[in-house]
Amino acid sequence: MPGHILKCGKCGAVVRVGYPSLAVDYAEGFGRTESREQLVEDFFELNPGVLRDEPEKCPKCGAPRKEMAAIHSYL
Length: 75
What we know:
- This protein has one domain (3-74).
- The chain contains two helices and three strands.
- Strands 2-1-3 form a three-stranded antiparallel sheet, with no helix packed on it.
- It has helices spanning 21-29, 36-46, and strands spanning 3-8, 14-17, 68-74.
């Protein structure tokens, strides 16, 4: 799941979607023995403001997804 940051063109709200795989790789490098899926679950649990899936509309103003543009992507 690639991650990216969306910005609403109407209200300026910024939304993070997905997770950076480098964060999971980093956790694996520290010797955590959980599965990769569990590490991803942990990421979302520790970062409650990050959405798993792209929103259909802006969570702040309700503008449709087409009003939101990706301003940054991360691996």
